[in-house]
Design goal:
414 residues, 40% helix, globular, binds magnesium ion
Amino acid sequence: LADAHRVIVHADMDAFYASIEQRDHPELRGKPVIVGASSPRGVVAAASYEARRFGVRSAMPGFRARELCPQGVFVASDIKKYAAVSEQIQRVFAEFTPLVEPLALDEAFLDVTASLPLFGDPMTLARRLKQRVRDETGLAVSCGIGPSKLVAKIACALGKPDGLKWVPEGRTRELLDPLPIGWLWGVGPATEERLRARGIETIGGLARAEPDRLRDVLGERAAALVALASGHDEREVQPDRMAKSYGEENTFERDVHEREIVTRTLSSHAQAVAARLRHDRLLARTVTLRIKLARARGERSRSSRQGAPDYPLLSRSKTLPHPTDDGAIVRRIAIELWDAAAITAPVRLLGVSVQKLSAAGDEQLGLFEAETARMRRLGPALDAIRARFGDRAVRFGSEEPKKLTPSMRKKRGV
Ligand SMILES: [Mg+2]
């Protein structure tokens, strides 16, 4: 019964990386800013709302973004700077509740049930939260409020940009029922297509369906997805320290096979994961690479008959002798795992995560662990240098485009 009265906020920064660049470079405001595809073979890490109007989306290859938006302003990704802003917003979130579950650098779930008496009603709390984020960072955060993670997340997405939307318990069905089925967690494009073939187009349509009759389409997940469509989502907000794994992943808009796009993507994920470890003063020993192949399994395979999954999902892990929070190490292992997997087919999803977490102060330093200690100090040191001398002060070689064009050389004075 207590769950029925939960109040959960999903807070998500608007066009995070692009908004930071527009904040720091006023000449970019109002312009279509595209972050992270500064070489034609890079991938888009973020696009400003002005760029999204042209159809530019994150994880899109740079050349595609250039086709769609030739007038776009392409800016190199600076994950260290974004991680520092992430720390600021996570600190603001912690002012409102200790129950914060970060989902990525720029978004989190907050269970604010117990904090409501301090702030009044959910809307007042969320307005304060939005104002605090703006005061600290100068940036807009969208907030969705609901009785479950599902509803809070959808309310947040519907309100963007600079959104604030509250969906109370009694209005959950009203929100969910008319939404296209693809909005439901766990319903990817292939599952969506199969449900549509059955005449199920909306979340409400799935909620009214008989799970047993969808077993051939949804497999084992049928009952759980029908329940979710009905608004039954009991998942709790899990504060970050309890997390067993930190991860970042993305789905590409088109299938990718170029090694450079793969390594850049893994690099960006590794830096983001490491920044989150440092933020929470944690170390990780295991690095896991997730790869979803673009080639669908054969129609006659066993899993296909059961309905899902549609694309082979591979997972490769390596456990290190010593725990780390260093992005360069996480990146190196992720790329080693990629090379060892010897993937020849195009991929549609790449993810990097870390497991076997421990508190940063816990491990004992042995005689031969000086290098580990040095590497551990590197991350925070870079963060500190950036904080003091600005975000251009430190840059990883691996983040630089392979070839500088004459205009880029001029801009950078090299
Ligand atoms: Mg966001």
